[in-house]
Write a structure and sequence with these properties.
It contains 8 helices and 32 strands. The protein has about 500 residues and is an alpha/beta fold. A hairpin with a 2-residue loop joins strand 28 and strand 29 (about 450). The protein binds ligand LQZAQKY5 and molybdate ion. Catalyzes the insertion of molybdate into adenylated molybdopterin with the concomitant release of AMP.
């Protein structure tokens, strides 16, 4: 349902609807972008099939964010064209107008949208058992309920000794979790296990491997025992009431461990935003190899666990085909905080996302992003506190939409902290798009981030073995240049364990 764009004239670039490799091949021959003309009220017309650079005027769908409008509506050249959509399909062409925003701007809008929805929702924090709290965000600080350790304890297996040696070693011993031993007198020693309570009168612990017992049962030190040696004193880690973690901390496996060690059975946490996934497309099979022009649905299996790793609770994954009525019913009937659609974001004959948003009067907060792949992605407000993320159907483009719009939206709805951006050197030069950001799968090696092949919008072969996506700015990156990376959840260790 897609026809290739043809653009002529200065600044023309034909890559809008080509895959990345094709597009980049063309870039080499294309002239540079025209200068921005802040005075231009309307972008110049685009040729008939520049549809991805355009969004769609359908009914009441409105562009809400003033910055969104200003970001691109007045731009000229490839990122600021406006015109009718592609060639008519069975259902005829869809009208469109360009409003794509830059990649950083799109992320900022998604994050702020989530933040204000979370503020408006005033959702009560949950009390969650530890075994259900992984991946949530603390809604209240975690304060120590007792000293840690809560008693003086041995750090080693060996003997608790009193005063200088040699010592008279008793036959009994003291184990972790057992009753306290009677106090030691000067010159006495008792066998002790790691974690056992230190008897009163103990001056240090002699490690098992540093002591020797003679025929008369006297214990000799092979290494001097300094006062306090290998004793963990009560309160060494914290005192009762100390603040261990701030509200807003992500509950990782280590946080669960600390909370348990500190005596917590439940955590006070922010509820996960509820997400419903609507998979669009008549061409999708749910089992077996592709056949007869049909393909396997790659997104239904991929998105739920990925969304969960972003802090969401996925309430349903529904396959709707290319049925405008079904999409309308599903969107209007959903009680999810966020509806995620896949496919149907462009202006083809059965691309129903924009028309549906128009029909229900949704506000388009982001309508196209200057990023490859994934530029037709969108973010809309359906109702107060209910949003829709439209992911393009091409699978890597959908990943791009997931990380560009869904991740910041869900992160702020889930009150998760923003990851620290970190740059890394790219081992190889990466060809850039002339005007758009590129997200390129990379593996992380000693020599830097290594860009992967198979990074076309319809391909998952690169990302399936990637550790991160490199954010390649317009114009590209040189070999050895530092580039921002977006970690993929399975490579970022931490909360990647949230996939189940
Ligand atoms: N005339 C133009 N056509 C297209 C343009 C353009 O600028 N002008 N942009 C292209 C780009 S870029 C993308 S991305 C896609 C986005 O299209 P949609 O979001 O409407 O997605 P569909 O058309 O429904 O599907 C696109 C492609 O992806 C396949 N697909 C869809 N869903 C799945 C799934 N769940 N699993 C695997 N593959 C899926 C689908 O079969 C298509 O091949 O539009 C271009 N067209
Ligand atoms: O080719 Mo499209 O850039 O969004 O996947």
């Amino acid at each position: 349902m897609t026809a290739r764009g043809v653009r002529t004239g200065p600044g023309a670039w034909q890559g809008d609807d080509l895959d990345v490799e094709e597009a980049l091949a063309l870039v080499k021959e294309a002239p540079g972008p025209p200068e921005e003309d802040p005075g231009a009220a309307e972008p110049e017309p685009a040729p008939p099939d520049q549809r991805h650079r355009t969004s769609h005027q359908h009914g009441a769908a409105t562009q809400h964010d003033p910055a969104t409008r200003g970001d691109s509506a007045t731009r000229r050249g490839p990122a600021g064209r406006r015109g009718p959509a592609g060639p008519p399909g069975p259902a005829g062409p869809q009208e469109s107008s360009h409003r794509a925003v830059s990649w950083p701007r799109a992320r900022a809008i998604a994050e702020e949208t989530g933040r204000s929805a979370a503020r408006a929702a005033h959702r009560a924090p949950l009390s969650v058992p530890l075994d259900a709290a992984l991946g949530l965000t603390l809604a209240a600080p975690l304060d120590a309920l007792s000293d840690l350790p809560s008693f003086d304890t041995s750090a080693m297996d060996g003997w608790a000794v009193s005063g200088p040696g040699p010592w008279k070693a008793g036959r009994d011993g003291v184990l972790a979790g057992h009753a306290a031993h009677r106090p030691l007198a000067d010159g006495e020693a008792v066998g002790i296990a790691t974690g056992a309570r230190i008897p009163d009168g103990t001056t240090g612990v002699l490690r098992g491997e540093h002591g020797r017992t003679d025929d008369r049962g006297r214990l000799h030190a092979l290494h001097a025992v300094v006062p306090g040696q290998d004793i963990r004193p009560r309160g060494q880690e914290c005192r009762s009431g100390d603040r261990l973690l701030m509200a807003g901390t992500l509950v990782t496996p280590a946080v669960l461990g600390l909370a348990a060690a500190a005596g917590y059975d439940t955590l006070t946490a922010v509820a996960r935003p509820r997400v419903e996934v609507l998979v669009l497309g008549d061409e999708l099979l749910t089992q077996g190899p592709p056949r007869d022009g049909l393909i396997r649905d790659a997104l239904g299996p991929m998105l739920p666990s990925w969304l969960r790793s972003m802090g969401a609770e996925v309430t349903a994954v529904r396959r709707l085909g290319d049925d405008a009525g079904a999409l309308h019913r599903a969107v209007t009937g959903s009680d999810a905080d966020v509806v995620v659609t896949t496919g149907g974001t462009a202006a083809g004959p059965v691309d129903h996302v924009h028309p549906t948003l128009g029909r229900i009067g949704a506000e388009l907060l982001v309508d196209g992003v200057e990023v490859r792949p994934g530029h037709p992605m969108l973010l809309a407000r359906l109702r107060e506190r209910q949003h829709l993320v439209g992911l393009p159907g091409n699978p890597l483009a959908a990943v791009s939409g997931l990380l560009t719009l869904a991740e910041p939206l869900l992160r702020s709805l889930a009150a998760r902290p923003a990851p620290e951006p970190y740059p890394l050197r790219l081992r190889d030069a990466v060809q850039g798009h002339p005007y758009d950001t590129r997200l390129v799968p990379v593996v992380l090696r000693d020599e830097g981030a290594v860009p992967l092949h198979y990074n076309g919008p319809a391909m998952l072969r690169g990302i399936a073995v990637a550790d991160a996506l490199a954010v390649v700015p317009p114009g590209g990156t040189r070999r050895g240049q530092e580039t921002e990376l977006l970690d993929l959840p399975w490579a970022a260790a931490g909360i990647g364990v949230c996939f189940t």
